[in-house]
Structure formats: structure tokens, C-alpha cells
Amino acid sequence: MTRSFQQVIDDTPQLLLRKSLSDSAPDPKMAGTIPVIYAIDADIEQAKSRTGDTVRVLPLGDMVGFQKPDAVHGLLYLPYPYVVPGGRFNEMYGWDSAFPVFAWADSHPRLMREQADNQLYQIRAYGKVLNANRTYYLSRSQPPLIAAMILRLWQAAQKRDWRDFDPDSVYADAETWLAAAYRDLVSYHGYWTARDRQAGETGLARYWDDGDGIAAEVLLGEPGHYEHAMEHFKQHPDERFYKDGVLTAVYYRADRAMRASGFDPTGHWGYGALECLFHAPACLNALLYRMEGDLGEIADILGAADGDEWRTRQTQRKSAMQPMLDPATGLYHDYDTIRKSRNTKPFATFFHAHWAGLYEGDAGLAKKAADTALTLLETPYGIMTSTEQSGSQWDFPYGWPPLQYFAFEGLRRSGQTEAAKRVARKFIALAERVFAERAALFEKYNMRDGNAEVSVVHGYSTNVTESGTFLWTAAVLKLAQGI
Fold first, then answer.
1. Is 15 among the domain residues?
2. For residues 291 and 144, is the Cβ–Cβ distance under 8 A?
3. Residue 39: which of 170, 137, 135 has the closest Cα?
4. 391-443 pLDDT, tens per residue?
5. What is the per-residue pLDDT across 18-30, written as a single tens digit (0 to 9) for each?
6. Which of 35, 135, 264, 290 could in theory staple to 356 by disulfide, Cβ–Cβ 3.0 to 4.6 A?
7. C-alpha dihedral over 176, 180, 183, 186, to 10 degrees?
8. ω into residue 265 within 30 of 0, thus cis?
9. Does a structural domain hold residue 258?
């Protein structure tokens, strides 16, 4: 069957749905390995009922074991079917799953509620919303968007019968579901404000991975990554990362932190994005600012007493973010906790502050920031990730669907309606033209040449698509059509 551009967008939740654990057990990043499925002890029987494969008990508390070279990696149990990004990403990812919920909460209520519930389960079972449900991702999370997902579903549930979202009556009603979600969200906020994720003395958060040593998925999925790093540091010595002929423990910790950011890799935080470890990123703290506001709103809906406490935390975070703010441009920059200065390299996460509501009450500053960011990063095809051609995939000349979303939705939220529409239409036009040529939606696009051609030094060499689509691309296009 030949699908049109619009049909592919609308069909993506079904095209990329994994109904059973067996469907997503095979891991293209670990080609040649035998698929293994793990579940915590309490869910072993439930996991077995969803797959014909052998299910092993996940040894909670032995995360270190999954950092060893001889670790037997596998898929982690989740209670509901889920949509995957596609291609080499045959598992459920953290921030990738937010955009489908934003896009399809109304049209696919049950499936999108299950996506959110899978993430809430991860918080309870694994301590966080995982980078993705593989054992080699147990040590890190991804950019936090789950509170916004929950509110989006709640808003959708106000317009139709809760049974559309929960036909099996897992919850008595929408409010019961929201109350259960709220408890998990509070726990997840605690994860992001814990000591290891504190950025120096700033009172802000940083990206972090609890694991040590080589990232298992990099060995096969990104060949040459570590060798390239060693060659780089031979030419550009830095004993924090390379000493006595070997990459240091700090190097591996920093490499992992970069992967928790989702921007894996970028030159925005120096070579290999390793300086990410020593920054309070504006994007992460903007997301947490939004999360604190969302938690306050949920508390109010539930009649809980702590709504004002969340708003106080939100105000405190905005105050702590003031050193990031350049009054001359209105932009929030990442803050380097070592140099105690702003990292002023242009990056598309400028728009996160708009999306999070950091400019509310100051329309002049919002417009100044929008105008500056658009001047630096807008192209005929949408928003490019940065102005630096570092050889990394999260840099010029590439543009990524989630960053288009934060741009057009952030601009819309901060009152820059015409700019929001312009960015959205540019991205739709680019994706539609590439689809007409290649019959597929792709993970990322070339914003210099207006195509889907990629050539990277740092990252994986393919531009991923599956069944003519890619999850966050279809979802962001659906959202762009509504601007």
C-alpha cells in the first residue's frame, strides 16, 4: 500500500507500535546477540504472559553489573504496548515518547495513556524515566517531559469519556489516574534535584549518568567513537579526560552525561560535548521550571495542599537561572560552573525558555529573545541546531524535529504567533518535499541544503526511518499542522 504524506503521519502510532515484548527484544545496536528480557521480581509472571521468550529477574541494586564488558544486556519489561522511534531504536525512549502524547492524546487516547503509564512504571520500578528500556540505559534518564505529558492527557480526558483512555478500568476514573501519576511525578522531580544532578553551587540541575566506564551501546552502535576521542586528546591534551595513554574515568562519566541530555553528541559543550558535565544547561532547567509549574497545576486539580510549594520552587529556580540570562539579547544560555560564565554558543535550546513560560509577564523580553534566536538559527527550512559545524549530528547543518517543536510551540506560547506559524510551515514544507522524493519521514534533516542527507563524524552515520516514518518526526509534523 502506498501511503500519502498525511497518511504516514496519521498512521505512525500503528506503524511503530510494538504490541509484545518479543517485538522489541531484538536490538539492532547489539547485532548478533541473543535477545534477553528482564523484569523486576514482582512482575516476572506478568512479563512471561506477554512473551514466549525466557524472562530473567532483573537484579535491582546491581546496576554496576550492567556496566561490565561481559554483561548480558537485554530489554526491560514495561506493562503496556509502546511505540518506538523506529529502525535501530527498537525500544521505548524517554523524550521521544512525549511528542506522540502531545500530538495524539485526542485521537489515540488509550495508546497515549499507556505510553505515559509506561513511563510512570519506569519511575516506580527503575527509579526514573529511562533513556530507553534496555539494561544499558538503567543508569540514566532523558530530558524530563513526563509532567507535561500527564497534563496533556488530563486535558484531553476532560473532553471525552475516561473509558476511551482506560477501557480495562485500570483506574476508577481520570482523577484516580491523575492522583497516582502525581505521586510518581513528585518522585521523579526528586531524582532531578538529587545531589549528583546538582550543578555545582548554582542551585540548578545538570545532566548526569550514574554509570561508569564504556557505554555498551556505543561499542557496536558508534564504531570508532572512543578511538577518535583518544586521537583528539593526543593532539589536544586534557588530563581530565585522557591521561597516561587512556581515557579517564571522568571522560566516561562526561560522555555518559552528554547522552543523558539527548544531544549525543554536539560541539555545544566542547569536544564530544564532554563539558556538559560541568554545565547547568538552560534547556534542562527550563524543563524543570515547566515541570514545577505543571506539578503545581496538578496539585490544584487534585485539591492537594502543596500547589503553592511547587510555585515557590518554580520561582526559586527562575531566580537561580538569572546568571544564565543575557539582558541585552533576552536569551538564556547554559552556565559553565567551572568558568562561572555563560556559554554563549548559539543553540536551538534557546526556545526552551519560551516553551517553559520563563518569559511570562515580560512580552518585551520574550520578543527580544525570539528575534535574536531566529536571526541566529532560522533557515528557509526551519530551525538549525547550531551555527557550528563540528562534525557532530546535533550541530549545523542539521535540524531535529523536537527542536522545531520547542521553537514553534515556544514562540506561540510567548505571543510570537506569526513567527511560530512561519517556523512550523517551513518544517512541514521541507518534510513534505523530502517525502515526495524519498517516500519517507526521517529522524533529522539538513537545514542548509533542504534535504535528508547526513554525513557525521560524531554520532551514527544513518538517518533513521522505518516503514517510511520516524516517531518524533511524524508527531512534530502533526503538532506543526495545528499551529
1. no
2. yes
3. 135
4. 999 999 999 999 999 999 999 999 999 999 999 999 999 999 999 999 999 99
5. 999 999 999 998 8
6. 290
7. -90
8. yes
9. yes
